[in-house]
Amino acid sequence: MNEQPASTWPILDEAHRALRTVVAGVRDGGWERPTPCTQWNVTQVLQHAAGDQLGFAATITGSGWPAYDPFAPDGHLNGADPADFAGSAMRAAAAAWATIPQDATDAPTPLPQGRMAGWLGAGACALDAAVHAWDIAVATGQPSPLTPELARDLLVVARELVEPLRQWGAYAAVVSGADSDDEVDELLRYLGRDPEWYA
Fold first, then answer.
1. I need a surface site. Which of 47, 100, 146, 147 has the fewest CB within 10 A?
2. In whole angstroms, how far apart are CA 6 and each of 37, 94, 103?
3. 10-71+78-144, superfamily in CATH?
4. The Mycothiol-dependent maleylpyruvate isomerase metal-binding domain covers which part of the protein (predicted)?
5. Other Cβ atoms closer than 10 A to 182
6. What are the per-10-residue average pLDDT scores of the chain (199 residues)?
């Protein structure tokens, strides 16, 4: 897989690093395993995550939309290498976001909210990649790829965006917290995920 270019948005670069790491760590037989996205296996989550990255990129560039519905992934990569499949989508997103200035106030996104500040749009793209990296990691017995610092930054983004998206099923209801929760647990619970989930 080719080296990932920097997007100029550190939060997005870190989220992409997380997703690349867990995709590379899936062992043979892991692609059919169940995930916290209850209706999807690992391959389907990968398809969804890659399709979303392409959607963010295409909204900026005007081309390169996914050739399939990311919200109805079929679980078949048709012979594509998973790392290349994910990597090409992340490279497209990174390149697209590299064209958005740091002080942008009106960046395009594929979200129902439409255009938004650049930091928030790039954060939304990062949030999508990072949470699905976690989904794949826990489904395949890998350590969480989310650092406390990344989780803290993503939670700021999530609190700005997630509530309107729950009505479309993009995120489940908040999961009740525990006294022992750290930054990663807090983010996952806010996104409707149980930090203790296992396959």
1. 147
2. 29, 6, 17
3. dinb family like domain (1.20.120.450)
4. 12-137
5. 11
6. 70 98 96 96 98 98 96 95 98 97 97 96 98 98 97 97 83 87 96 92
Q: Which residues is 107 bridged to in the sheet?
A: 116
Is there a contact between 162 and 191 (Cβ–Cβ < 8 Å)? yes
- Name the one residue in this structure whose structure tokens are 């960046």: 107
Q: Where are the domains of the chain?
A: 10-71+78-144
Q: How far apart are CA 19 and CA 135, in angstroms?
A: 10
Token code pair at residue 55: 């959607």
DSSP secondary structure string for all residues of 163-174 = HHHHTTTSS-PP
CA 56 to chain CA mean position, Å? 11
Instruction: Provide the token pair at 111.
Output: 């979200």
0.85 exceeded by pTM? yes
In the chain, where does DSSP find H-type helix? 10-24, 42-61, 82-97, 118-139, 148-166, 183-190
Output the pLDDT for position 179. Answer: 85
